[in-house]
Amino acid sequence: MRRLLILGGGTAGTMIANKLRRRLDRDDWSITVVDRDDEHHYQPGYLFIPFGGYAPDDLVRSRRRLLAAGVRLLLAEVDRVRPADNTVVLEDGRQIPYDFLVVATGTAPHPEETPGLLEAEWRRTIFDFYTLDGALALADALESLDHGRLVVHITEMPIKCPVAPLEFTFLADAWLRQRGLRDRVELVYVTPLDGAFTQPLASARLGAMLTDRKVLVEPDFIVERVDSDRRVLVAYDDREVPFDLLVTVPLNMGAAFVGRSGLGDELNYVPVDKHTLLSLDHDNIFAVGDANDIPTSKAGSVAHFAVEVFVDNFLEHSSGRPMTGAFDGHANCFVESGDDKALLIDFNYDTQPLPGKYPLPLLGPLSLLEETRANHLGKLAFRHLYWHVLLPGLPLPLPANMSLAGKKMPSEET
Ligand SMILES: Cc1cc2nc3c(=O)[nH]c(=O)nc-3n(C[C@H](O)[C@H](O)[C@H](O)COP(=O)(O)OP(=O)(O)OC[C@H]3O[C@@H](n4cnc5c(N)ncnc54)[C@H](O)[C@@H]3O)c2cc1C
Q: What does 56-90 look like in DSSP terms, one character per residue?
């Protein structure tokens, strides 16, 4: 019996287990998933919680029930991987041997890494929405906001879903307008980037949307500490941004055991070949989803497209054949923009987000880099697709690698 061990039963780990269970003979292969708890969260839904959009029940399901029959789930904290022995050690002392290992333990916010963030103002005037608890606490704080300075802040890149802080800002603008409070609340967007986003066309488009909404942008801001007594963010270059309500995205890091096991970079992400997701150091370890260091967005969509390529590659690699699939870094992200509209961006390692239609050229129905209601409905429909199509590992009729069909090159734009 050969043993596939998957660390992390989130988006990537669940899809991999369910897809491979169908493809690997049960008499030849065991599949085991390790996760610390039995609660699978639909994280994109956190964005809507502060604005009353979802309740926790809409976003949480039992992991066990999302995994196919024939996949074993161990509920335990991973303590370390011992690659030399092909063994994973759990915090409760159990040792789990493997033939192939997939690290799919994602990335998580670490507010303790920024001095001052977790002091007296945490969850009083300082919040995050990258955790369910944080999003719920922020809902209460927003409810009582009727004037002052609302600052949305990114500590450092990379973060998962890098458009989520922009989405939060657009939704806050719309929400305040609808309540007649927009004139009484100043909105500020503080980012370590030199603009709204990383890639030129998307950054220009999203930056213009911030300007239209009268959001003040503070770019190139590398936070050194939070002075919670004075309620200011302080940058390394001594710039200060005062706030009445701070919504921050803390430093995102991969799982600590990755670092302890000597498998990670300085942020505990596993260095992999960007096309096959195979560890650069170990021929029987892959890292899929947010846990790896590939140069594209950390997003559920990336995990999904990457898993499509990974599954066939895994079958080839584990039977001693060369891997023939090459993941291209394909990402697509809906960007909720308020008033029941959203944009969509679609890109990969080599092609920046371009305008056009998706997935069908000319027909769409989704529009790239353009705010439409159809995009908003697409974003909302995605939760259903996530639970019922993506996680069970059913096929979605979208190519894993990015297509240029329907996209307009910058020179074709008027
Ligand atoms: C606010 C927000 C909005 C988002 N919006 C979008 C969006 O619109 N579109 C999109 O594509 N993506 C979005 N994302 C990102 C998306 O949720 C993640 O990129 C995706 O879940 C990554 O999947 P993963 O399997 O790599 O990690 P995860 O799904 O996070 O799974 C990692 C798993 O590993 C487990 N784990 C970690 N460490 C250990 C350990 N030591 N021991 C045991 N278990 C461990 C965790 O419990 C977790 O279940 C959003 C994320 C957030 C926070």
A: HHHHEEEHHHHSPTTEEEEE--EEEEEGGGTEEEE
Mutate to test the pocket of ligand 1, among 18, 43, 47 (most ligand atoms within 8 A of CB): 43
Q: Which amino acid would we find at residue 205?
A: R
At residue 414, does pLDDT exceed 50?
Answer: no
pLDDT at residue number 69:
97
The span from the CA of 38 to the CA of 34, in Å, is: 10
Contact 75, 93 (CB under 8 A): no
Q: In angstroms, rounded to a whole number, what is the distance separating the alpha carbons of residues 196 and 216?
A: 11
pTM, whole model, 2 decimals? 0.97
Q: Say what the pLDDT of residue 413 is.
A: 52
Whole-number Å distance, alpha carbon 106 to ligand 1 midpoint, is: 5
pLDDT digits over 65-118, tens only?
999 999 999 999 999 999 999 999 999 999 999 999 999 999 999 999 999 999
Specify the residue with its C-alpha closest to ligand 1, atom 29: 10
Q: H or E segment at 347?
A: strand 341-347
Instruction: List the domains of the chain with CATH numbers.
Output: 2-50+59-108+253-318 (3.50.50.60), 111-252 (3.50.50.60), 331-390 (no CATH)
Cβ neighbourhood burial of 297 (10 Å; 0-12, 13-18, 19+): buried
